[in-house]
Amino acid sequence: MAPGQKLISEGKLDEAISFYKNAGQTNPNAAWEASLGIGAALDLKGDYSVARQEIQKGIDAAPANGKVRALRTMAISYAFTDDAGQAGKYEQQAYTIQMAANDFNAAAGTADEAARIYLEGGDLDDARKWYEKGHATAMQNPKLTDAEKDLWNFRWENAQARIAARKGNSSEARHIAASAKAIIDKGTNPDQAQFVPYLEGYVAFYGDDYAAAISDLQKANQKDPFILVLLAQAYEKSGDQKNAMDYYRKVLQIYAHTPTGAFARPLAEKKVGS
User: Fold this and answer.
1) Backbone angles phi, psi at 57, to 5 degrees
2) Given 60, 143, 159, 185, which residue has the most CB atoms within 10 angstroms?
């Protein structure tokens, strides 16, 4: 289904839907994947109700090895409408399947995905519960290397810092963020260093230090729609409407059926539309 994914990434959503419909008719064994693709494109168009009908078809028809993907696709669909409670139900089902297979790493990733949806939905208690579950699940893996332990410890510290920031505990958030950075500074996970300025920018943003947030977030991944939407909001709160709108428009140039896309796109559409 790579051609359909490419069409979506290029913003050619109607073409993607046509491709997936044809692919599902041509190859009935791939119809479940086609339904997920159609659902993703419809979510990005903002047609959430019909999107979920399509994704449910994908869940119902998915083989055992595709069920987790289908469930997480539905979770993301609910993230687009800021419905963390419904998203969490589907993440829980995916998590249960992965745990039954003793796939601790994948289950931990699903738990963290659920946690982030809860966090950005403003449910801080469930966010913490799921982040804690993700960390504990990862640590159950008997084959975990020291570097992988560092990775999951970083993710847990990162999560706690963001939760503290959302609660308005700026000093605590900065302290925990420094602990997270110290783990990365060990050098065991160099690919994770890119997430440090994002974390620092997130903490600064929710600490109302918008100048620091802008400085930090500009050092983070500029292809991540959530980072771009945070930048837009930081500029907006600083009174710089021009840069804010520029970043909101940049968000809308990214077509991603991911949690970060789900958090960012609806807000950017609302801002640009207004």
Assistant:
1) -60, -40
2) 159
The two tokens of residue 141 are: 């893996």
C-alpha angle with apex 266: 260 to 268, nearest 5 degrees? 90
8 Å CB contact between 75 and 87:
yes
Amino acid at position 101, single letter: A
Average pLDDT along the chain, 274 residues, taken 10 residues at a time: 94 98 95 98 98 98 98 98 98 98 98 98 98 98 96 98 98 98 98 98 98 98 98 98 98 98 98 85
pTM > 0.90: yes or no: yes
Domain residue limits at 23: 1-62
CA distances from 69 to 73, 76, 98, 221, 235 (A): 6, 11, 11, 25, 36
Count of the separate structural domains present in the chain: 3
- Same domain, residue pair 274 and 198: yes
